[in-house]
Structures are given as C-alpha cells and as structure tokens.
Amino acid sequence: MINLLNILSEHIGEVNSLPRGCVKYVNGSASKNLCNKLNKSLYRKITFPLIRKVFDMKKQKWNEVMSPEEQERTLSTLSRLKDLDPARKWQWPSETGGISYGTIDEFINNRIPELGFLYKERDGNLEWDPVNKLDTNYSDLAVLITDVVEKSKTFTSEDLLTDLNNGNTKTLQNVVDAVGQYPEVLYDKFISNSDLYTTQSLYYSLQGEEVEDFVLDSMLNCGWDLIHQGGGGDIIDVFLGIDLIMEKGGELKTIQCKKVWGIKNIPSTLMNPDIGAYRIVGNVYVSKQRNIDLVGYGTLVGETIIGGRQREVVLKDKEYTYTDKMVLPKPEGSKYFYVDNPICTNVS
Fold first, then answer.
1. Separation of alpha carbons 33 and 27, rounded Å
2. pTM for the complete prediction?
3. Which of 4, 80, 277, 288 satisfies CB 3.0 to 4.6 Å to 338 for a cystine?
C-alpha cells in the first residue's frame, strides 16, 4: 500500500522547514490577509473546478497503477463490507465533486474504474502524491491561489481581498477562469515543483495517523481484530471515509478516527446525572456518516474513546432533552460534546 505516513516520515525535516499555510506571507500584508480570507470551505465551489481541471490532465488510473495484489486486497475488503448488507446504500464523492449513493457493487463497477490520482516517481517507484488533497485542504489551496495572484499581472491581492470582504466573489471567479485557460502552466510552474501546497495536509495527516494508531491500539486491547487500515491513497479511506475496519465475535464495524483536544470522564452530567459521560473537547466533523458505525476520538498524548450512535440531544423550551433519533456523537454548535456509552476507552 502507498502510505502517506511513509512519505511524510521520509521528508518530515523538509516539511517542518517550510512555512505552513498563510504564515509564509508578511504580517499585515494584503497577501497575508487574502490568504487567511481564502482559507474557508466557502470558496471551494469556485476553486474546485480549477483544481479538477489541472488534476485531470495528470491523473493516472488507480487500477492501472496499483499492483494486482493491492487491488485484490482492496476488493476483498469491499466484499466484506458488502456482506454486511448487499442492499445497503453507501456514500462517496462523485466524479463531479458532488455526492453519490449506491451499493458496494455499484461503487466497484461504476466508481472504481474512474478513479485516478496524482503520483510521484521516487527511486523508480510511484508514490501517492499528497497534493491530491489540495482540492479539500483549504489552507494549502489558499496559499496556491494567493501565490498565483501575487505572480499575476492582471490581478492584485488588494483588489481580490476588497471584493471578498464586500461579499463579492466576482474577482475570484475571474482569477479561476483566467488561470483555468492554462492548467498545464499552473501545474508545471506551481504545483509540480513546490511542497508549499502540501505542508498543511502532510502536517495534519501525520497527526491523524498518530491518532488512528492510538485508536487501533485501544480497539485491539478491547479484543477487536484489525481487518483493514487505510492510508494515503487508499480508496476505502479516501472515498468511503473509513479509517479502520475491525471485527469481534463475527461483528464487523467501520470506524472513522478524529483528533480532539481532550477527553475527560465526568461522573455526573446534565443528561446523565447518575452515571455521567465522557466529555470530548474538539471541533470535529464526521464525514460520510452513513458509512460509519463508530467514531474513534483520540488526543496526541494517546487518550482515546470509541463511541457509536447514541440518542440525539436537542435544546427545547430552554431545556436539553433526548430524542429517539440515533446519531454519531459530535459537537452541535460548541467545541465540546459527550459520549454516553463508549465501547472502548483509554483515558487517564
């Protein structure tokens, strides 16, 4: 498997020596303010088509690059997921950037043949390129757009920033349209020769890999067996949002792992005054929720908690109350939330 952690470990010194995100620009400059402004998902609908156009020129088909052994391993794992319920509808990103729903068979037959990624050749081997994350990593993408504007003779950081501050995206769209006429130039002069547009994704991927390993260790200690672990370029991870697949007593569970800031056992809470709950501090987002059975939350010091769906809590008539809806635990308008009945914990 082409593992992003291996790539990062090999080049961690280079990555750490580069300025991450918008810090490369002078404080107070128009470029710094513009970069910070662009670092939002709000603008992805404008920038996504540009990155898609660039990448489509350079992508290589997954099933043409991956070894037969890797393809067989992936298809075998997908078969295990299919066995859970052949009619179950799963979620994955469509080729156009939207969301598709279908069975595992539909994913294998309709989506996998279209899959393509950017790879880098290193020592005669093709490695999955972290720049694949550029269309979803807003920090790296903000740096790229800002650099393009800085080098432009047509646009200025000041004009684009003013436009965005006024709630107008016309200038940004004009930038994307102009650059989109020369996708190969954008790739050759910016993306292919610079690590500046992967620093944030590599930094957070390393932290994510650490947390994922902590969650895996916790599950193993709780008697679960590992069926599958994702990594850079792994399509089960990238397209289905599944970091780990674990099995215990014939029961298979899909897990997404999330880094959080703190985990604490609270003996008595508002909703559970007698038995308490675990308070999780962290502003996390659980993607592709229909594919996920459990969420593993972990801190960088190794504390972990793994929880499944639990009764939803809502604020009604100025009081919190449970509903009958079962949801994955996640923050709702705050930076902390509770896990009521974890299946596995490692909290000091």
1. 8
2. 0.85
3. 277
